[in-house]
Write a structure and sequence with these properties.
Blueprint lengths: L1 H26 L12 H10 L1 H15 L1 H17 L4 H29 L5 H16 L3 H15 L10 H14 L18 H32 L1
């Protein structure tokens, strides 16, 4: 029963990635991101062009983001095996990962407010659009702390049969570093550090989705190995 539930939580990450991508791209048309230099009229026109489709995409993105909590729980169980109990790194990952889910849900709510009344003043639509993108990428700290906790736990695993290979620890530390440029968007409206730039949007997006898929494979192997040992 426990193994089955753990595997369900692990596979929930795949469902999250698929649904979030569908909502982000073909439905909401947030891939690529809106330009920070776009005028209020241009942004308002984007929300007015297909408000129902955009709301549906945001609904899907918000709804599937709750699956992140299940995936964080699966990581927590694996880290408990690494630390041989509920250690400080496990608790850090749990709290940071749960907070990270909030910063996926809240931007969708802000954008939904913009799409809910597309006839409102373009300046207000621009404000809500800005707020959504800033809330999505700028709060990098929770994601950084989560990945550092995972990386240190993997590298510190001294069990006879480690839960994950050591390269996974270094990978998580690098992922943490690659999330940091998101905080720089507050200083730029153009270039690679703008919210639609390569260091804030494209690299973190690819890294974020790729990290999920890699962790799914490794967590599944660890859960099955723990089940056989039990």
């Amino acid at each position: 029963m426990n193994t089955r539930n753990e595997l369900l939580c692990i596979w929930s990450a795949v469902l999250f990635v698929v649904l979030f991508t569908i909502g982000l791209w073909p439905l909401a048309h947030f891939l690529p991101a809106h330009s920070p230099t776009a005028s209020a009229e241009d942004i308002a026109a984007l929300y007015q062009a297909r408000p129902w489709q955009m709301r549906l995409g945001l609904f899907v993105m918000m709804g599937c983001s709750g699956l992140v909590c299940a995936f964080v729980a699966a990581i927590t169980v694996a880290m408990k095996r690494m630390e041989n109990g509920l250690g400080v790194l496990t608790l850090t990952q749990l709290s940071a990962g749960t907070c990270g889910a909030v910063f996926l849900i809240v931007p969708c709510l802000v954008w939904t407010a913009a799409a809910y009344r597309p006839e409102r003043s373009p300046e207000l639509t621009l404000l809500l659009n800005d707020l959504g993108w800033i809330m999505l990428f700028m709060p990098f700290t929770t994601f950084v702390i989560q990945n550092i906790a995972i990386g240190l736990a993997v590298l510190g695993d001294r069990n006879a049969s480690p839960e994950m290979p050591r390269w996974v620890g270094f990978m998580n530390l690098w992922v943490a570093v690659l999330f940091i440029p998101g905080g720089f968007l507050t200083f730029f409206k153009t270039g690679p550090f703008a919210w639609n730039g390569v260091f804030v949007y494209w690299i973190p997006l690819v890294v974020f989705l790729g990290w999920y898929l890699v962790m799914v494979v490794l967590l599944r192997q660890g859960a099955l190995r723990a089940a056989r040992a039990a």
